[in-house]
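User: Is it possible to get a 3D structure for a protein together with its bound compound? The compound here is NAI. I've pasted both below.
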Amino acid sequence: MPKREERGTLKPNIFIARSVPPEVEAYLGEHCSYTKWEQEDPIPRDKLLASLRDAEGLLTSGGKIDDELLEHAPRLRAVSTISVGYNNFDIEAMKTRSVIGTNTPDVLNDTVADLIFGLMLAVARRIPEMDRYVKEGAWKRGDDKTLFGLDVHHKKLGIIGMGSIGEAVARRAKFGFNMNIAYHNRNRKPDTEAALEAEYLSLQELLQTSDFIVLMTPLTPETKGMIGLGEFALMKRTAIFVNASRGATVDEQAMVQALQKGLIFGAGLDVFEHEPVSPDHPLLHMPNVVTLPHIGSATAQTRLDMAMLAAENLVAALQGHAPSCLVRELR
Ligand SMILES: NC(=O)C1=CN([C@@H]2O[C@H](COP(=O)(O)OP(=O)(O)OC[C@H]3O[C@@H](n4cnc5c(N)ncnc54)[C@H](O)[C@@H]3O)[C@@H](O)[C@H]2O)C=CC1
Ligand SMILES: O=C(O)C(=O)CO
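Assistant: Yes, that's possible. Here is the predicted structure of the complex:
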């Protein structure tokens, strides 16, 4: 009897919908028979649907996994996303067809938290604006009050969504910058409160009293648009708002209005409602808004770790083992 791996036809069929590092592809090749999308640009929906007819597994990093897709993929048993966020999973559609869904938590916590801290500092100390100022030859005097920003150290940081990444941000704030930590979360976290001297607040109290507000909840029906004009109006006029969760957790039009009216000092954004954001979006033309192209986890090492974890999840699921990162709603 040949060993299972030697009988190529017995390996599960998978489709790799985005490029992955060579070592990840090699690992998948050992355990699966695969076809893949060869280009760096995201796969168009029609091509994805056409690629799934025989697929038992799908490795992806976005795009709706919904009834339409599942109808085109009658043999699909598992979808593994190379991301923590899985708001692209239609959980009911997947449950109905018993399709497993996995994600890649934790391996990116520190990388994303570093970037969030970068955004906090960039907005508070106006770093991109000052960079342009020097490069455009506008630097005339050494001590100019118009260049002043806001302090980060010893200020109050309010985290909405104190999960794995929120906690990594809070640790940097507490131990690196002597900040006071407040948080609002679905549930209270006594151990975190003790370790970081963190204070649990209602959303309203957090918005009213924080100097920095970091939004880090997943995008769900409950969190969609959770920060709107009313929430911005509660914030301090000197507050800095940072969003690295998903664009749609914030009402973007309301954020534009809040910034135009001077309701807050500025904003740092890694995510947008529509990505890539349009170059004429008003948020891109405000000097007190720092914008990034959704690069929270974008370092070579972290992206490799995420892709490998996603590959391991997919192989485990297809081999009938429990994948380590089954998404909560599909457990
Ligand atoms: N910008 C980027 O590149 C990245 C963005 N993300 C986004 O960040 C999100 C969070 O990631 P993790 O910290 O790993 O997830 P997590 O699941 O560890 O933490 C999320 C936290 O949000 C809380 N939460 C959920 N609904 C809430 C609500 N209505 N009100 C208050 N709190 C609520 C949960 O209780 C949990 O503590 C992901 O779902 C993803 O959308 C994640 C990684 C990178
Ligand atoms: O992991 C996620 O959810 C991202 O947004 C990208 O790393």
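Residues 1-8 have pLDDT under 50 and may be disordered. Residues 83-85, 108, 296-297 surround 3-hydroxypyruvic acid (ligand 2) (CB under 6 Å).
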